Task: inverse folding
């Protein structure tokens, strides 16, 4: 038998390699059109669908026999969903009858957990993948930057004339046009001015010559164009696709950023694109094309592989890595996940060797030569060659000489690769807008190819190709069974942080425009919550068979629009914060509208689900049944009637105990469950100014997984919510506090040493062994260098180390003490910093919550950083996540400039030594670093006066007051750190804490008019899903029955060799209190 702690260990380790469980519910038109849907057939149909669903899950169960328990757990949950839907009558979802305990009526169903359960990844159970590990490459390289000659960042390439005598060089020239869905212009303006013309010309020109080809990536543009063209043109496009002249590459809604994007959104935009393609063109993309994202993540490689792609291409990789990979001929490799012990995650990847994806940097090492083969730059045109040698039109007179020049470049390029197949992209940003440009490029190249191909002594076969044409030839030569060529290496790791030249590291965009990075995540959590509750509602409606006017079609439209707006924002100039101001506003407006719309979807669905008598349902948009409770001051509960009902939606797959806060117009309130049991509650001040306040109510709500809980708020003269008490400090100066209802204490002796690090959180205690750890929170400023090239939206070029923040005025420090939460708020000129502790059993009580509200609008060329300094002996190592999906170990290196040691942090970063791990969980993507042992810092906002010469043409001066949220966890480890490993995993606790941080409970107020209707809570699952299973989404898909159970189970299958999940473990509710 294996000891419990080991099971937990492995659990904790496995969890982050997420078990992704996506259940697609059906939404066909018949179901949507309820007025036409015959009621009597509803049950049969519903049963049919559910049995299909069960059938699929049964089949999956057989396929994944080794993961029996996990699968059956999910199956039970799904079957239970059916049961609870069936029993949707008066008893359905009665919390007191289900396995879910009523709050405080009985102790929570939390199993006693050994304190060791909080440990994590104490043992490595998987070996790092074989082959090249990027961490090792970083150790190896000197990162010097010598002049490489014509190929500045490379080296001289030589070859023998006879090298291709036995096997000719195969050249695939791949025409492409890079269309940013927003950058210098908005998405719509680019479409109107450029993109539609590119696509229109494409249809005409590719039909002129069957040898001419083109690739296209951004489905956001393609689908917009498709909506605007007639059937005849659509048929012409289809025939181009069928003939292989037009290839859709990647097929995502956009070409996403790979640093700041969360995997939920990466999947969203990929699904949206792929489903569009399936519906309209009937194609499945085979090859990924990512020429512009600023660094590359293995998460994206994994998602592409899972989406059925076989090949991918990347471009923006550090120039020193490119040079090293070129010299080792490892530019083409199988990209394998760090955590994959076998080869199941391998995807064939081509890394472009040179500086850029434009024509001068793609035909070969010498841009001066290659530029002469960009026929858009022919003399007389709007663009020219900066190397001052223009292209010449190809004629009978010069073709031989021009072929020699170009072939020389092709041959040199091919020497960087292992096979005799070479790929040459031919395009740039928004290329091929005009018919003339098509003719210039295609006709001149065709003459060059015709000459090459008709001269056997050149030993070359050149042609236009799509990127998959190229990969097919490569596979024939080096991969397919029976090939005679070389084999390709395996590479693991990521390609951050990107530098394109000198010390120009692109770590600025990890934080640029943080307001929108936060908004992105707010939209994400709303979208997920809305998708899930909408799908549950449709299932319930079908089951009920009741005629109704639920706005299913309209809400599906809002969901689709939100998916697309979220998808659009994953573009590598959107979430990155690298678009022009007006483009940023366009994105922000889209995000904001979708957040509002999704709130509508959530309240509409919850309305149906909480009604006891479904026949009482009626949809009236002008008279809201439920209203989203906002923590904004304009919305508050007022008690004109005796009691007000609150419906609380828990979008997580865990039964959950969390604090819910609403604004109230009186401090005399009580909260009870729907069974009348009182609930712990606290009335606190809402500080309009640091020292004047109105009131809010916080209470501890317990809501079942994916369920709806009901609470009643009522006036209470006594015995209601406790009022928080306040203590104010200020080092010097008068302090007057203006507040009713609350006890306020202002100690006369303000000589307590107060600085930006908060003395109340200097010590974090590990309860179980009594050890104390010092953690200091500080703020600091970075400036920008005095050199010519300065920090901008992309680049971080600091003026040396950060300087400690020293406020002009001593801060006001406010300490709140309450029964539900306590907090310390420190108000500086630029930051309002709050540390909060929840007095809640379970996950919420385990972490310190940090909220910063940052305002640097009065500054110039400054960036503000939050720095945690601890006694964790982390040395030069730390860990950041990639896309919220996996952990990448990092090493801070003195041989690199400061800005190179910053990495993207999407969901967490941590430090550890053999005894302790300190994890910072984040609710928004930001840049982070660990510049000294024990230190972890996060750039909160940046305000920069100038452009950094990457094309955007402006500084970053549109800063907003930006709130960002974090949680800090301190956990015990029991491990001797040996050799640095390429593997690390977050603990189970940090995983669930991250889930809670990103997906808060959603409170909704029942309108006063609706209080007379009878409502019941909903508990759709029999119990929480196991803590190590994350329900990524429950996404309704129009048009066909489609049920995917998408399990990322690498670790589970590996793990099953070692042990079986015990009943004890699968019953774990993730609620324990032994760790901090
Ligand atoms: Zn781009």
Result:
């Amino acid at each position: 038998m294996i000891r419990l702690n080991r099971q937990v260990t492995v659990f904790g380790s496995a969890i982050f390699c997420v078990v992704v469980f996506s259940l697609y519910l059906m939404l066909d038109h018949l179901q949507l059109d309820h007025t036409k849907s015959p009621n009597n057939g509803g049950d049969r149909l519903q049963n049919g669908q559910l049995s299909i669903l069960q059938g699929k899950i049964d089949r999956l169960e057989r396929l994944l026999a080794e993961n029996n328990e996990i699968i059956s757990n999910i199956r039970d949950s799904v079957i239970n969903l059916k049961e609870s839907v069936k029993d949707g009558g008066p008893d359905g979802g009665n919390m007191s009858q289900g396995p879910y305990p009523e709050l405080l009526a009985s102790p929570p169903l939390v199993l006693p957990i050994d304190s060791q359960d909080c440990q994590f990844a104490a043992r490595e159970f998987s070996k790092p993948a074989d082959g090249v590990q990027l961490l090792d490459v970083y150790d190896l390289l000197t990162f010097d930057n010598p002049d490489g000659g014509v190929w500045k960042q490379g080296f001289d390439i030589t070859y023998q004339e006879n090298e291709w005598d036995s096997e000719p060089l195969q050249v695939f020239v791949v025409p492409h046009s890079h269309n940013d869905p927003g950058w210098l212009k908005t998405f719509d303006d680019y479409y109107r001015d450029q993109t539609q013309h590119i696509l229109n010309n494409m249809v005409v020109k590719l039909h002129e010559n069957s040898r001419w080809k083109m690739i296209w990536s951004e489905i956001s543009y393609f689908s917009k164009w498709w909506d605007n063209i007639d059937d005849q043109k659509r048929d012409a496009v289809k025939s181009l696709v069928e003939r292989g002249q037009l290839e859709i590459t990647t097929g995502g809604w956009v070409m996403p950023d790979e640093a700041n994007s969360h995997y939920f959104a990466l999947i969203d935009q990929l699904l949206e694109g792929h489903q569009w393609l399936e519906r309209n063109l009937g194609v499945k993309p085979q090859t990924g094309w990512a020429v512009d994202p600023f660094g590359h993540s293995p998460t994206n490689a994994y998602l592409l592989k899972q989406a059925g792609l076989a090949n991918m291409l990347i471009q923006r990789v550090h120039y020193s890595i490119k040079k090293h990979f070129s010299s080792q001929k490892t530019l083409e490799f199988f990209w394998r996940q760090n955590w994959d012990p076998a080869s199941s995650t391998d995807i064939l990847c081509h890394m472009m060797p040179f500086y850029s994806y434009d024509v001068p940097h793609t035909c070969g090492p010498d841009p001066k030569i290659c530029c002469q083969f960009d026929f858009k730059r022919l003399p007389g045109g709007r663009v020219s060659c900066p190397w001052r040698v223009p292209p010449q039109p190809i004629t009978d007179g010069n073709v031989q000489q021009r072929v020699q020049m170009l072939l020389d470049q092709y041959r040199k390029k091919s020497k960087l690769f292992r096979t005799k197949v070479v790929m040459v992209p031919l395009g740039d940003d928004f290329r091929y807008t005009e018919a003339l440009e098509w003719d210039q490029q295609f006709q001149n190249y065709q003459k060059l190819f015709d000459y090459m191909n008709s001269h056997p002594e050149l030993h070359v076969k050149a042609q236009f190709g799509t990127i998959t044409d190229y990969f097919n030839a490569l596979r024939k030569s080096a991969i397919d069974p029976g090939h005679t060529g070389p084999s390709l290496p395996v590479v693991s790791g990521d390609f951050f942080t990107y530098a394109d030249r000198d010390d120009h590291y692109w770590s600025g965009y990890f934080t640029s425009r943080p307001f929108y990075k936060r908004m992105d995540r707010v939209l994400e959590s709303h979208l997920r919550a809305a998708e899930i509750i909408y799908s549950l509602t449709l299932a319930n409606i079908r089951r009920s068979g009741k005629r109704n006017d639920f706005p299913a079609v309209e809400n599906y439209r809002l969901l689709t629009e939100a998916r697309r707006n979220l998808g659009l924002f994953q573009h590598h100039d959107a979430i990155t914060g690298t678009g022009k101001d007006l483009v940023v506003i366009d994105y922000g407006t889209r995000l904001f509208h979708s957040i509002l719309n999704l709130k509508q979807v959530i309240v509409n669905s919850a309305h149906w689900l909480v009604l006891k008598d479904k026949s009482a349902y009626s949809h009236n948009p002008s008279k809201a049944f439920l209203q989203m409770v906002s923590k904004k001051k304009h919305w508050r509960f007022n008690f004109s009637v005796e009691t007000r009902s609150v419906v609380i939606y828990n979008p997580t797959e865990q039964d959950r105990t969390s604090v819910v806060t609403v604004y109230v117009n009186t401090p005399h309130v009580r909260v009870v469950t729907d069974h009348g049991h009182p609930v712990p509650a606290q009335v606190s001040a809402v500080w309009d100014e640091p020292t004047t306040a109105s009131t809010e109510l916080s209470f501890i709500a317990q809501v079942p997984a994916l369920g709806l809980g009901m609470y009643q708020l009522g006036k209470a003269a006594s015995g209601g919510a406790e009022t928080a008490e306040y203590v104010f400090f200020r080092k010097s100066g008068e302090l007057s506090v203006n507040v009713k209802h609350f006890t306020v204490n202002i100690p006369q002796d303000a000589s307590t040493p107060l600085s930006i690090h908060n003395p109340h959180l200097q010590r974090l205690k590990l309860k179980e062994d009594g050890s104390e750890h010092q953690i200091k929170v500080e703020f600091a400023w970075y400036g920008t260098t005095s050199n010519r090239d300065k920090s901008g939206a992309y680049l971080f070029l600091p003026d040396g180390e950060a300087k400690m923040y020293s406020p002009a005025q001593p801060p006001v420090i406010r300490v709140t003490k309450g029964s539900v939460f306590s907090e310390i708020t420190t108000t500086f000129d630029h930051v309002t910093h709050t540390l909060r502790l929840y007095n809640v059993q379970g996950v919420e009580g385990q972490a310190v919550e940090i909220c910063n509200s940052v305002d640097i609008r009065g500054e110039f060329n400054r960036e503000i950083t939050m720095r945690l300094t601890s006694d964790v002996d982390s040395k030069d190592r730390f860990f950041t996540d990639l896309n919220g999906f996996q952990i990448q170990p990092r090493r801070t290196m003195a041989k690199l400039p400061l800005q190179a040691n910053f990495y993207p942090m999407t969901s967490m970063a941590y430090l550890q030594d053999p005894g302790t791990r300190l994890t910072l969980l984040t609710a928004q993507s930001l840049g982070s670093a660990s510049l000294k042992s024990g230190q972890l810092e996060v750039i909160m906002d940046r305000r920069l006066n100038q452009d950094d010469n990457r094309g955007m043409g402006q500084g970053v001066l549109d800063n907003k007051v930006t709130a960002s949220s974090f949680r800090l966890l301190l956990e015990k480890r029991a491990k001797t750190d040996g050799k640095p490993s390429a593997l690390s995993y977050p603990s189970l606790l940090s995983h669930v804490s991250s889930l809670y941080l990103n997906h808060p409970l959603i409170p909704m107020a029942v309108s006063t008019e609706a209080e007379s209707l009878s409502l019941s809570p909903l508990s759709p699952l029999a119990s929480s899903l196991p803590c190590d299973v994350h329900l990524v989404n429950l996404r309704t898909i129009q048009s066909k029955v489609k049920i995917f159970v998408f399990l990322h189970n690498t670790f589970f299958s590996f793990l099953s060799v070692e042990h079986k999940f015990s009943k004890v473990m699968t019953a774990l509710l993730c609620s324990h209190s032994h760790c901090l």
Summary: Residues 753-998 form a domain with the Beta-galactosidase; Chain A, domain 5 fold (CATH 2.70.98.30). The pocket of zinc ion is lined by residues 178, 180, 292, 572-573 (CB under 6 Å). Residues 150 and 366 are 5 Å apart (CA to CA).
